[in-house]
Amino acid sequence: MLSYSFLLDRLPPAADLHRAIADLYGVDPARVHVGRLYEDDGGPPATVSCTYAPLPGGDFPWRLDIGADDTVTGPSEPATATALAHRFSLRALLSLDAPSDEYWRLITPTEDHQVPLNLDEMDHDRYVLAVTG
Hints:
Elements: E1 2-8, H1 14-25, E2 32-36, E3 48-54, E4 62-68, H2 77-88, E5 92-95, E6 103-107, E7 112-116, H3 119-122
Parallel strand pairs: 2-3
Antiparallel strand pairs: 1-4, 1-5, 3-4, 5-6, 6-7
């Protein structure tokens, strides 16, 4: 079962995101659900679900969660973030699953590298790139 979660600097329109997720995972658009977290439109069970939730500000004010049932084999989490960054000219932030939360993976339409975050802002659920210099 596929389950991804990463942050975005902006949220594409839901209809555009719906098309992108269907394309990325090779799923009939009728089997893809895209919507705000905890809001359900009561449709048939989705093969791929993409939900989003606003965060309290920062450089990456949107969390995107993607889940799929066992019938879906799709791109990895970084490949999904990269495809969305290219398609919508946005930035995605992925956890490195490291012992420290200081460094995260930043994916842009042209780059993929590690960046430090402001840990004080993270205490308030705001993801802000640290100023280095």
